[in-house]
Design goal:
This protein is of the alpha+beta class. The protein has one domain (3-16, 44-134): Tetrahydropterin Synthase, Chain A (2-Layer Sandwich). It is built from 4 helices and 5 strands, in the order βαβαβααββ. A hairpin with a 5-residue loop joins β4 and β5 (131-134). Bound molecules: the ligand Nc1nc2c(c(=O)[nH]1)N=C([C@H](O)[C@H](O)COP(=O)(O)OP(=O)(O)OP(=O)(O)O)CN2 and zinc ion (ZN). The ligand Nc1nc2c(c(=O)[nH]1)N=C([C@H](O)[C@H](O)COP(=O)(O)OP(=O)(O)OP(=O)(O)O)CN2 is lined by residues 18, 35, 98-100, 126-127, 129-130. The ligand Nc1nc2c(c(=O)[nH]1)N=C([C@H](O)[C@H](O)COP(=O)(O)OP(=O)(O)OP(=O)(O)O)CN2 binds at residues 18, 35, 98-100, 126-127, 129-130. It comes from Psychroflexus halocasei. Its cofactor is Zn(2+). Zn(2+) binds at residues 16, 41, 43. InterPro entries: 6-PTP_synth/QueD, 6-PTP_synth/QueD_sf.
């Protein structure tokens, strides 16, 4: 069967601060600049979840997009939307919430709920001009 990639868009608003506790204030400021603001700052994150696999000959689906939508909602949006990532999301207690690290966390959260034969790629926009892609 041909392999096809299906995509689902999502979004969440979240606050964060880029910071390392093991660096002093001067080094945090030097490396992370305004993103080190102790009062945090926010982004409107845009997420694209891409799933590649063979088309099921019976359904015509690679994955039911309703199922993918529900996974993204329960594993990403419900936990991240309108949250302070550093304070309220356990994954970032000891992990700097850069867009790179957020994309890996999202990948792992979604991958755990997909058929293992499906391939996953995450595209995450932190700003309209800053974005990353991740696939393991
Ligand atoms: N490699 C990374 N670099 C930076 C990250 C990151 O997660 N990974 N994050 C930040 C800031 O959190 C933020 O994304 C940058 O904001 P800003 O500089 O305002 O980005 P804009 O796209 O809005 O900037 P303009 O150039 O003014 O459009 C920094 N670096
Ligand atoms: Zn930021």
């Amino acid at each position: 069967m041909p392999k096809v990639t299906v995509h689902r868009k999502a979004h969440f608003n979240a606050a964060h601060r880029l910071h390392r506790d093991d660096w002093d204030d001067a080094k945090n400021k030097e490396i992370f600049g305004k993103c080190n603001n102790p009062n945090f700052h926010g982004h409107n994150y845009k997420l694209i979840v891409s799933v590649t696999g063979e088309i099921d000959p019976e359904t015509g689906y690679v994955i039911d997009l309703k199922i993918l939508k529900d996974i993204i909602k329960s594993k990403v949006e419900d936990d991240f939307d309108h949250k302070n990532l550093n304070i309220e999301v356990e994954d970032f207690k000891n992990l700097n919430p850069t867009v790179e690290n957020i994309s890996v966390v999202i990948y792992n959260r979604i991958k755990a709920h997909l058929d293992p034969k499906l391939k996953l790629e995450i595209t995450l926009y932190e700003t309209p001009r800053n974005f990353v892609t991740y696939k393991a």
